[in-house]
Design a protein that fits this description.
The complex is a heterotrimer of chains A (about 280), B (about 325) and C (about 240).
Chain A: H1 15-34, H2 45-57, H3 61-92, H4 96-107, H5 116-123, H6 127-151, H7 155-162, H8 168-202, H9 211-220, H10 224-252
Chain B: H1 2-21, E1 27-33, H2 39-47, H3 49-52, E2 56-62, H4 65-74, E3 79-83, H5 84-92, E4 97-106, E5 108-113, E6 128-131, H6 136-147, E7 157-160, H7 164-172, E8 178-182, H8 185-192, E9 195-200, E10 209-216, H9 217-222, H10 224-243, H11 245-256, H12 261-267, E11 273-275, H13 281-293, H14 310-317
Parallel strand pairs in B: 1-2, 1-3, 6-7, 6-8
Antiparallel strand pairs in B: 3-10, 4-10, 4-11, 5-8, 5-9
Chain C: E1 4-13, E2 20-30, E3 35-39, H1 46-54, E4 61-66, E5 69-70, E6 78-81, H2 93-103, H3 108-121, H4 137-149, E7 155-159, H5 167-183, E8 188-192, H6 195-201, E9 204-208, E10 215-220, H7 227-241
Parallel strand pairs in C: 3-8, 3-9, 6-7, 7-8
Antiparallel strand pairs in C: 1-2, 1-4, 4-5, 9-10
The chains are: A mainly alpha (about 280), B alpha/beta (about 325), C alpha/beta (about 240).
Chain lengths: ~280, ~325, ~240
């Protein structure tokens, strides 16, 4: 087992997490093979992995992956484009929250599938309604998250900057944004997970490609093996993107290095620059 | 006042308990869809045919074929009614079900807009057709296209939906040019004035099976008497339905809580669709081979235990 | 001419059933190069006063004049230092000190040199490339001080800056601040609730009453301050604070 090494760019291997996954996979394999559960309801793990492999090798999975990834990036990207500036604007103004409160409470319970009829009505068929659903599924969370991150910025940081000669604009872009960045990046990662969750709902509208579509189609043809293979594919893609974002997070927040407690072997106190210096 | 309210509460609770205790041990659950050709089950339910046979049956109306099969697989239902393609696909994937009777034939076809100028299958070239992937609407559509000289993958664009209603709106709003659909939606569109039925798939396959009755294989084996009783009710209901279309339409409207009686009655005309109980293993196999030719099956149709015809044969003999 | 003048300053907050008066008719002058300590019980409004002088809040009545001209909003001429560690965590110590210089348009080489020199003067030169979280509380306040002083503000406003560090560090910081005053004179308006600290650092002490705050006592601090005198003054001032 190893903890992340501070300052290095290697991705730590979390052996314990992998061990747990391997254990679960083993149970998944045995339970249907032994007959505890009907293999029709739960195909064995190796069968599912085999299906995933053959789908990948035959090339038939890539168009689906491409379609879903493209929709996630587009829908999520649009949501960010809207939520970040608007959230920044609202977060900086105390009054704005009073205006927005009831509206957000009204919209919050609307899960992505609730938007499907409207999506078809407004945007017809194809990519647009799917992207729209991912957009509405994530934009509110991103907006509220951005507002929260901006609000959480210690006002002393801003006041300090102002009395060092900053204009309001300079304070916003050179102090508020960098100060809010850690929270914003965490929100970004969580939001991306949310976007992936929306993909299946989003692809219930009239699309003919995509991992969500693949899973739905497999379900309608009772192909549980492919359903599970598709789910694993989505999980892996989401994981991959999250790892990528985490790397970005580490790079942007290098100044935070050493501040977090890393696993068993990272001792937060044994770092340079502390203790012994009054 | 207060003790009176408590007494009423206790009384209600007691009645509920008694009510649930009173259920005979052979409680049967049948899952059917909200569709025209499942009306025999509505009739059996409405007219109490099951009670006459000494059965305690709860009929569940489920809007999704997939859910009915899943419930059958879980054992939540013992008998169900689903499209024949759904049944074959499920059995192909290992579901322990068998087709034991027919419930509906025909009723599927291609719908276009009045104003689209499409009057012939050839006019569909280059157009967008809405369909539900791998469903009976899709299988028969492909066959129809092929027999009319069109390649389903090259000469037209198939757009996949999940629900019949969504396809109707997409067609109406012009997002697609045609929709493979079913009754009574198609006659409804014509009566509303905007739709035009290009043709029924009975042109390619007269009297083709549409929806079938399926049962769990273990239920067939272990409870043959109850199964026979269910089939007797089904046969009786089918005969009743065919004898009185007006009544049948009324029952459909009542159970679907949609459409109106004249519309449904019009959609039940014999040249459009037919409620039936009889089936042959051959026609089921024909459908399975069609599905295989379209790449929808994993196994050879001949190897699949699709049908079990002895229960129905027994029931018909006994009449 | 008074360097910094606070004239008839009042501040009241909207509240129900009636507005809360924080400051009532404060009159105060600070002379150039003077270290003025503002003493008052907790919550009396000393922080509010400082915020108004810094231009972060507006008074309900009265004005603040710097070199005879009324102040408008905030400016680097009236830099504010807090007791909370207000350094920008994403910048190094040097980055923090350079912040104001960069805003003022100073070229990179010059501001780097100036920043390092100022950090040296405050005794934290070796930690120029460290991030705030790597520094102790005392170090951070020194960097905060460097960040403010490098801009040569007309008035340095300090809001209980040593209240959050331990007693030993506080004593050292006080000594260093006094030392700084001797080498480079700076006008300071220093808020504290510690009489001892005020006596140690200030040229003049102003005591504010409890809310609504008014000036209760003004006294120059005789230097050098004899320990016996200090004790006597302390006792007397404490009376005013009660």
């Amino acid at each position: 087992m190893s903890a992340e090494r501070r300052g290095s760019n290697t991705i730590a291997i979390n052996w314990r997490g992998l061990l747990l996954l391997a254990g679960l996979a083993g149970i998944w394999e045995l339970v249907p093979r032994v007959g505890l559960v009907d293999a029709v309801l739960l195909p064995p793990f190796t069968q599912v992995i085999g299906r995933l492999g053959s789908l990948l090798l035959s090339g038939s999975l890539w168009p689906h992956i491409g379609a879903s990834v493209w929709r996630v990036l587009l829908g999520y990207g649009l949501a960010l484009l809207v939520a970040l500036p608007v959230g920044l604007y609202i977060g900086l103004r105390e009054q704005a929250e009073k205006w927005l409160g009831p509206l957000t409470q009204l919209l919050r319970p609307l899960a992505p599938p609730a938007w499907i009829p409207l999506a078809i009505l407004w945007f017809g068929i194809g990519n647009t309604p799917a992207v729209f659903i991912i957009f509405v599924g994530t934009v509110l969370t991103l907006l509220l998250g951005t507002i929260g991150a901006v609000r959480d910025v210690d006002k002393h940081l801003v006041q300090g900057a102002l009395t060092l000669g900053a204009t309001r604009t300079q304070a916003v872009f050179q102090v508020v944004l960098p100060a809010a960045l850690p929270e914003l990046l965490t929100m970004l990662r969580l939001g991306l997970g949310l976007a992936w969750m929306c993909v299946v709902a989003a692809e219930m509208v009239a699309v003919s490609r995509g991992l969500g579509f693949l899973i739905l189609e497999a379900r309608n043809t009772f192909n549980t093996t492919t359903v599970l293979a598709g789910m694993i594919a989505i999980g892996l893609l989401g994981l991959g993107m999250d790892v990528g974002l985490r790397q970005l997070q580490r790079r942007l927040l290098r100044w935070q290095a050493g501040r977090k407690a890393y696993g068993v072997l990272g001792d937060p106190r044994a770092e340079q620059g502390l203790s012994g210096l009054a | 006042m207060r003790w009176q309210r408590i007494a009423v509460l206790i009384l209600i609770l007691a009645l509920m308990l008694l009510g649930s205790c009173g259920r005979p041990s052979t409680a049967l659950r049948i899952g059917v869809r909200t569709a025209n050709d499942h009306v025999p089950f509505y009739i059996s339910d409405r007219e109490g045919f099951y009670r006459t046979e000494g059965l305690s049956v709860t009929t569940y109306l489920v809007p999704s074929n997939t859910e009915i099969v899943e419930a059958l697989q879980r054992g939540d239902f013992q008998v169900g009614a689903v499209p024949v393609t759904t049944a074959i696909a499920a059995i192909d994937q290992g579901a322990h079900l068998r087709i034991i009777a027919m419930t509906g034939r025909g009723g599927d076809g291609l719908l276009v807009r009045q104003d689209s100028g499409i009057r012939d299958w050839a006019d569909l070239r280059g157009k967008q057709i809405a369909t539900i992937k791998a469903s009976i609407l899709d299988v028969l559509l492909r066959q129809a296209l092929q027999e009319n000289g069109l390649d389903p993958d090259r000469d037209v664009t198939l757009v996949y939906f999940q629900k019949l209603g969504d396809m109707i709106s997409a067609l109406q709003t012009g997002q697609v040019d045609a929709s493979s659909n079913t009754e009574p939606f198609m006659t409804d569109a014509e009566q509303q004035g905007w739709g035009h039925i290009l043709g029924y798939y009975t042109e390619q396959w007269p009297d083709h099976p549409c929806c079938v009755v399926v049962a769990r294989e273990d239920f067939i084996r272990e409870h043959p008497d109850e199964l026979d009783a269910v089939l007797r009710c089904h046969v009786q209901a089918v005969e009743r339905a065919n004898a009185d279309p007006n009544y049948t339409a009324a029952v459909i409207v009542e159970y679907l809580e949609a459409f109106n009686v004249p519309l449904v009655e019009a959609s039940l005309s014999l040249d459009k669709m037919r409620v039936d109980y009889a089936f042959s293993a051959d026609e089921i196999m024909r459908m399975a081979r069609l599905m295989q030719a379209q790449g929808l099956l994993e196994h050879e149709p001949d190897t699949l235990p699709l049908t079990e015809s002895s229960p129905l044969a027994r029931v018909l003999e006994g009449r | 001419m008074a360097y910094l003048e606070i004239r008839a300053l009042s501040k009241a907050y909207q509240a129900s059933p009636r507005p809360v008066e924080a400051l009532e008719h404060i009159n105060l002058t600070v002379h150039e190069g003077e270290f003025l300590a503002l003493l008052g019980p907790s919550g009396c409004g000393k922080t509010t006063l400082l915020q108004i002088v810094a231009g972060l809040e507006a008074p309900t009545a009265g004005q603040v004049l710097l070199r005879g001209r009324p102040v408008q909003g905030w400016s680097r001429e009236r830099t504010l230092i807090f007791q909370e560690y207000s350094l920008f965590p994403w910048l190094t110590a040097r980055g923090n000190v350079e912040f104001g210089l960069r805003l003022a348009g100073m070229p990179p080489a010059t501001r780097k040199e100036l920043a390092l020199a100022t950090l040296d003067r405050l005794g934290v030169g070796p930690f120029a490339e460290s991030y705030p979280h790597q520094l102790s509380g005392g170090m951070q306040q020194r960097v905060a001080l460097a960040r403010a002083l490098v801009l040569e503000p007309a008035v340095l406003l300090m809001d209980e800056p040593f209240a959050a560090v331990d007693a030993i560090t506080r004593r050292r910081l006080q000594d260093e601040l006094r030392q700084l005053q001797t080498t480079q004179v700076q006008t300071v308006l220093f808020v504290t609730h510690s009489v001892r600290e005020a006596l140690k650092l200030a040229d003049r002490i102003v005591v504010l009453s409890a809310r609504p705050a008014t000036v209760r006592l003004e006294m120059p601090v005789p230097r050098p301050l004899d320990p016996a005198d200090a004790a006597m003054w302390e006792e007397e001032i404490v009376q005013y604070l009660a």
